[in-house]
Amino acid sequence: MHHLADRSHLNFTIRQARAHRSLLRGERSFPSRHQIYWVSRIRASRATKRQSFTMAATRGAFRPLWRPASTALFSPRPILHTRPPLYAPPVRLFQSTARPRQYRRGFNYQRFQSTSSLLQRWIAQPTFYYQLAGIGGTVGLVYSYNLEEVPVSHRRRYNIVSEDYEVQSGRQLYAQVMREYGGQILPAWHPKAMMVQRVLDRLIPHSGLAADKNRWEVHVIEDEQKNAFVIPGGKVFVFSGILDVCQGEDGLAAVLGHEIAHNVAHHAAEKMSQSSVVMLVAFAASWMLGVGDMGLTRVFVDLGFLRPNGRKQESEADYIGLMMMSQACFNPEAAIGLWSRMAQEEMQAPPQFLSTHPSSHNRMGAIREWLPQAREKGEQAGCRALSGYAQDFKHAVSWGS
């Protein structure tokens, strides 16, 4: 028995030496399971030895100065050499007490591999082409069913948001704007508010918007911002700073015609429809490519689709607004002067590809191309005769004075 015990202890010591030697030499970049097991046993053995020494030192420090003879022969002695348990608890080979750094998740190669394997297994199925044709046909039917034509411009676009939901969202936005600028709104009898109301009254009959879903209200905000917008439902907001840029009712008609045109084309509903589809595609692309953070995918989608589509909507609103102001017998050439003055105000504007709006220079070029159509719309509305009467009235007034 003693011979077997010595031999077992010798084999254990040899295994210890081999494990230490392989780790010190660095034969493997990562320790094997065999090395991990024996290193854990070595560490457990050392811990047991330290505990035994501690117990021995404690007994030596607190034992009495005298010991009865009857207990001297049977006093327990500390066990200094013990074998580690057969199944030692797992011990981490590399530990760090420092707080781990938080890194931004990037490309997930394991997720990409798993996704690629799923796609390969799907492609290998005998009914793959039938499934692909079914998915493509369903998507095509849904897309075709929700296509509609934009008034005036006759552009075909995808839209799944109803006009009622668009108006309901406009009510929420109206309440938010009123909470922010309610204390800066000029009264209805103010000259600026009265001018905006006059221009609006001439434009609305040519907008084609239903009166039952649009309750038109004018709000002029006393602020130096050069901005104006019309919320779905007929809520008009004009900042007083842009009135200086308009320089008259014709320039103001170009601004209001553009903003009303967004409601005519239901651009808010179109943006909501496209955002839902684009975000779904971006999430699927991020999952398939193994990108943990969707921020990079959102940037590509924003620059490649959302911003170009926003510029297209702004150009469409320019066209619809120009036709509208011409039918209302405003001078369409005033739109060129408006955007010329806006270009001077926007000297620090970002490049066009980074903006949701076309540059003022490109807007002026497009309006020059649309001017013949705008003049034709004005002639069809009988604006030339009205302009002749207006000129005669001015001459009569100046002659009488």
Topology:
Layout: H1 2-25, H2 33-62, H3 69-72, H4 109-124, H5 128-145, E1 147-149, E2 156-158, H6 163-181, H7 191-203, E3 217-221, E4 228-231, E5 235-239, H8 241-246, H9 249-264, H10 267-289, H11 295-327, H12 334-345, H13 360-380, H14 383-400
Parallel strand pairs: 3-5
Antiparallel strand pairs: 1-2, 4-5
Question: What is the ordering of alpha helices and beta strands?
Answer: HHHHHEEHHEEEHHHHHHH
- Percent of residues in helical segments? 55-70%
How large is the radius of gyration?
Answer: 40 Å
Strands of the widest sheet, in order across it, are 3-5-4
Count of DSSP strands: 5
What is the oligomeric state here?
A: single chain
Mean pLDDT across every amino acid position = 77
Task: Kindly describe this structure.
The chain has 401 residues and is mainly α. The protein has 2 domains: 2-72; 149-385, no CATH class. The protein contains 14 helices and 5 strands. The protein has a 3-stranded mixed beta sheet with strand order 3-5-4. A two-stranded antiparallel ribbon has the order 1-2. Strand 1 (147-149) and strand 2 (156-158) form a beta hairpin. The protein is elongated. The model is unreliable at 61-100 and 393-401 (pLDDT under 50).
